[in-house]
Amino acid sequence: MEAAPTLRLRNLTVSFAGQDAPVTAVDDLSLDVDAGEVLAVVGESGSGKTTTFLSALGLQRGAHVTGQALLNGQDLLSASEAELSRLRGREVSVIFQDALASLNPVMAVGAQVAEAVAVHHRDLSRARTREKAVELLELVGIPAPRERAAQYPHELSGGMRQRVMIAIAIANEPRLIVADEPTTALDVTIQAQVIDVLRRIHERTDSSIVFITHDLGVVAGIADRVAVLYGGKLAELGTTEDVFYNASHPYTAGLLACLPRVDSGGRGSRLHQIDGTPPRDITSVSGCVFHPRCPMARLPSPCSTVPPPLIDTVAESGMTGEPHLSSCHFAAEVPQRADVSAPEHPGDIAVAHVERDDLLIEAVNVSKHFPLHKRSLGRGDRKVIRAVDNVSIEVARGETLGLVGESGSGKTTVAHMLVNLTEPTSGEISIAGKRLSTFSRKELRGLATRIQFVFQDPFSSLNPTMTVEQILAEPLKLNNRWDRKSSPQKIARMLRLVGLDEHASARHASAFSGGQRQRIGIARALMLEPQVLVLDEPVSALDVSVRAGIMNLLADLQEGLGVSYLFVAHDLAVVRHISDRVAVMYHGKIVEEGAVERLYSSPAHPYTVALLSSVPIPDPYIERKRERIILSGDQPSPANPPSGCRFRTRCWKAQDLCAEVEPAHTAVAGGGFVACHFPEATVADDEVSPKTARLEGLHG
């Protein structure tokens, strides 16, 4: 006899008060979470993933919930608040997305873990409760747990804070753990650590885990089943292998095709993009809720008139096996690879052929140190944060240089120095052959016509009180390039170029989705026709489907306009897809550089190897067989960097030499350079990289 589901949702409907009428976010959803399984729940923002489970647990404020939610047979929707309080933490727990916002900033983390234990075990002594908190911190892989227990959330890294959240969630070994986007805001190395912790906790406790995410690639190696939600409805449900290899809903197939892969692809290949946005009120869409965005929709009938039933495609085909549910009228016809043929580029600007050595950006031994504090009366040396230390990079006309590394590695600081948002402590930056330090005040004001910056957050980087037309006109007016006749036409042309309707110019930025706002930000950066765009994590805050559209747009713009990119990111799969060359930063230094194909196929630095192994591959078979290198700990303090090689404190190959001598840049067979005494790839004749030697000669 099969065990009853840990959580059973039946006809769950969730709505919120709207301006004129209630807005439905989840509509008649039925779903089981089986005992001991890991169920991944995926979909874009607004698909109802988090709302479904927080509403079932009584944690969604302002929600009107109907239907049934049975946790181990007990109906949560009819339970009193006192009964829910007894269940939360003991029978069910939640790992929230933003650990810093979820943890109490004025309580030590050990006390917060102990509190989770004590509230359900009042018979334990205070000493035993504190000891159990330390044991839990050790269980989730926090180094020196007894010392860390006395620290406060702001003193821990993002990865450690998320581990504290996991420790709180498992404190009472609940039957169900709901992990709500637990890895979204983390670096790939920390993401790999968190997933590894969740996997070990699942093996140890056999709890059921609901893993909520918008990224199918993350769940390929951890989930038993995958539920795909769209518009508050269940689009598809099946085993992980069935969903990845035999998608039976066009939305699932589209999501999978949107994902760049770290093990394949690259410049010249395009990602599938799902046009349009999810509906705000799902009851306003007749028939199939996905039909306005579906490439397979047959209109008007049946897709826009008849809601598709949820069918078992395995049973329908006469086969036996685990159920594979789909709510599509044409589930059997869903292609296993979405059509990703490239649309015609909207621009009409021809690009002349340029030579590789036509450099637009050249940074030579650039450093940026921030003072940590001043000693009284000026006595003694000032301690500094070494954010960037002797970094040299080049960006040629028409090429993309990807700059990758963990948070805190110095990537954004480098980007800020290139656009003169912050001044280097030492070193030299040249723009189109002229040293930035020799620019006159007038030339510095005109720097915006040569190089522009695209910020990470499309929500905070656009003025909400200005229309799109005003936002795009501002750079022209500030640089005395506004013309009453031609400039409005240029704004309309630029909106078309980035894939927006020219009528959007009259609307405010707040009226647009995240992806559309990022397009507006790119259009603003292009208004002055710069030669270089510096893009700081331009797609990290976006859904996978929106991210694919922005990446395709950037490729189109580069092809049509000949613009160069410095693409700052921590997602190596995204960087592979868009870059010609990649520079890997660690602790303020570039430890490896090379062409994409060489660096991804034969990484030379152990840090690069670890980064690549941490990136999830959206293929269950590959993801579950591949070997991972899980980096322990965090980057050392930039105020007190290690001697010798800065990576040695986390490197599995470190020897005495690594602590004594800082490694020089040496050429790698196949191109590029590496700064490592014991590189993974073959070093070409143990010589200093020709590029590095040339740059150092220029600097001298």
Automatic annotation (TrEMBL):
Q: Could you identify this protein by its name? A: Oligopeptide ABC transporter ATP-binding protein OppF
- The organism encoding this protein is Amycolatopsis deserti
Q: One MF term in GO for this entry?
A: ATP binding
The record's keywords, sorted A to Z, are: ATP-binding, Nucleotide-binding, Transport
Do you know which NCBIfam families this protein is assigned to? oligo_HPY, PRK10419.1, PRK11308.1
Segments spanning the bilayer are none
Q: Record's family?
A: Belongs to the ABC transporter superfamily.
Query: What's the superkingdom here?
Result: Bacteria
Q: Which residues form the ABC transporter domain?
A: 7-256, 361-612
User: What is a single Pfam family found in this protein's UniProt entry?
Assistant: ABC_tran
Q: Which SMART domains match?
A: AAA
